[in-house]
Design goal:
Blueprint lengths: L26 E6 L5 E6 L12 E5 L1 E3 L3 E6 L5 E11 L4 E7 L9 E3 L7 E7 L4 E6 L5 H11 L6 H4 L6 H6 L7 E4 L11 H10 L2 E7 L22 E5 L1 H12 L4 E4 L1 H10 L9 E5 L14 E5 L6 H10 L1 H13 L10 E5 L2
Parallel strand pairs: 1-17, 3-12, 3-14, 4-11, 14-16
Antiparallel strand pairs: 1-2, 5-6, 5-8, 6-7, 7-10, 8-9, 9-10, 12-13, 13-15, 16-17
Helix pairs in contact: 7-8
Length: about 350
């Protein structure tokens, strides 16, 4: 398919800049991919109505760290945004980062993160047009260094939010799933943000199973696709882990004829990376750059819930791969018409296999 097939007009006011008051009170749309039926104006808590005892939800338990920092450049005092991507060497305090504005940051520059504080970083390499390698000059045990570094950071909200408002203390909590446990993500697996403790308890009472995999979400899904031919687009690789316990639970659910629901596009990408030709989930530890777009036949799950996303986004393409392009595009048209909210803090679309 072509990039232009995923264009639509998204009014600016439909992009969610704030989370819903309660995690599980966003709106939900449900699409039935075999019958083509679309249900609108549901509450996210209604997701329970589509699942039964012994069905399994697969969650991404990655944990977001406060990746966005603001510093000043030595001598000029220019304000610089530093976005932490990943730690390269704990002993040497080396980090892979993005900087903005990049044109002002060269090898040898020093950045200060507090007026009188000890946190200083030196630029030691250029990696991409905006990418840099920083060495933090902070002499202390590594655990203390990480605490001090993260204390300077804020929730790594997407650019379309941060350009409208600053991150707040509330975002530190709300831009994180309640089951996050494996640190490594620089953006949240957004669909999981809708699951509250109360909702998950109700699911547990109903007899629904929870399986957890890990995919450390990077910024690849927010990179603009610059080619019309989608086969030529390359996703940035992300680290992922699928455990034996997750495989056993998911595979038993599938073999027993029950529903397996992926929570979010990151979970779908991870499970499709690790699924075997027999349609069963395999243990996996490594990296994935899997880009799912139509036509694509999913090998594992038979339900998918994910947010509504921006035009031409890889997330929308994955949804269209699962539900069928025509059905999902119609869902997006109805979402705009009915003023659903889009983006990481937006409303959700459940696609079921009936």
């Amino acid at each position: 398919m072509k990039l232009s097939q995923f264009k639509f007009k998204l009014p600016e006011e439909l992009v969610a800049l704030e989370p819903s008051y309660h995690r599980d009170e966003c709106r939900l749309m449900v699409a039935h991919r075999k019958s083509g039926k679309i249900e609108t104006d549901l509450d996210f808590r209604n997701i329970l109505d589509y699942f039964d005892e012994d069905d399994t939800f697969i969650f991404n338990d990655t944990q977001v760290f406060p990746a966005r920092l603001y510093g000043t450049k030595e001598k000029t005092d220019a304000k610089i945004e530093v976005f932490l991507l990943r730690e390269l060497n704990p002993d040497l305090r080396l980090w892979d980062v993005l900087v903005e504005p990049a044109r002002k940051i060269r090898i040898g520059n020093k950045l200060f993160f507090e007026d009188d504080g000890p946190m200083v970083a030196e630029v030691i390499d250029n990696t991409t047009s905006r990418g840099r390698t920083l060495r933090f000059l902070y002499d202390c045990p590594h655990d203390e260094f990480k605490r001090e570094l993260y204390a300077l950071g804020s929730a790594p909200l997407p650019r379309y939010i941060i350009d409208k408002r600053p991150a707040t203390e509330e975002d530190t909590e709300r831009f994180q799933t309640i089951y996050a446990s494996k640190e490594g993500a620089v953006t949240a697996p957004a669909t999981g943000l809708h699951f509250s403790r109360e909702l998950m308890k109700r699911m547990e009472i109903r007899g629904i199973n929870f399986a957890y995999i890990t995919l450390h979400c990077g910024l690849g899904c927010f990179d603009p696709i610059e080619v019309e031919d989608l086969t030529k687009h390359k996703m940035t690789s992300e680290q992922m882990f699928v455990t034996k316990d997750a495989c056993e639970l998911v595979n038993k659910t599938k073999l027993d004829g029950h529903r397996v629901c992926c929570v979010g596009v990151s979970t779908a990408r991870a499970t499709e990376t690790a699924v075997g030709t027999d349609g069963l989930l395999k243990e996996y530890e490594g990296w994935t750059n899997k880009f799912i777009f139509p036509p694509y036949e999913f090998g594992l799950s038979n339900a998918l819930v994910a947010n509504f996303y921006h035009p031409e986004s890889p997330m929308m393409m994955t949804q269209a791969s699962f539900g069928g392009y025509d059905l999902v595009y119609e869902c997006y048209k109805q979402a705009v018409k009915n003023e659903y909210k889009f983006g990481c803090y937006g409303d959700a679309l459940l696609i079921v296999d009936d």
